[in-house]
Amino acid sequence: MIKKKNIIIIGSAGRNNGKTKYACELINQLSKYYLVFGVKVTTIKKDGEKCPRGEQSCGICGTLSEPYKISEERDNGTQKDTEKMLRSGAKKVLWLRVFKKSLIKRYN
User: Fold this and answer.
1) Is the pTM of this model over 0.85?
2) How many Cα atoms sit within 13 Å of 75 on the Cβ side?
3) Fewest CB within 10 angstroms: 10, 44, 64, 98, which?
4) What single DSSP character describes residue 54?
5) Phi first, then psi: what are they for 70, rounded to 5°?
6) pLDDT tens readout for residues 18-67
């Protein structure tokens, strides 16, 4: 378990189960009182496998050539999760795209 003051982590083992909606509701409420930053994490199992976003040829997985990539998201008026978080009141939203093997921490 990860315990860190002032951080809320929302996650699940699947897609389309309300994570973004819940995050946006929290951001909307908390941003009235606190400075809120959002981070979306897209885990890519390995190159060539099915897209974790459920899309075909969107370029997200195929263009990742390093272990991870972090980008700052902008609100361009689309329905991307990161843009929804910005519209809900997040000051800044980052998007981490990362290969699963780069997330694994080894304990010796």
Assistant:
1) no
2) 11
3) 10
4) S
5) -115, 130
6) 999 999 999 999 999 999 999 999 888 765 555 655 555 566 677 788 88
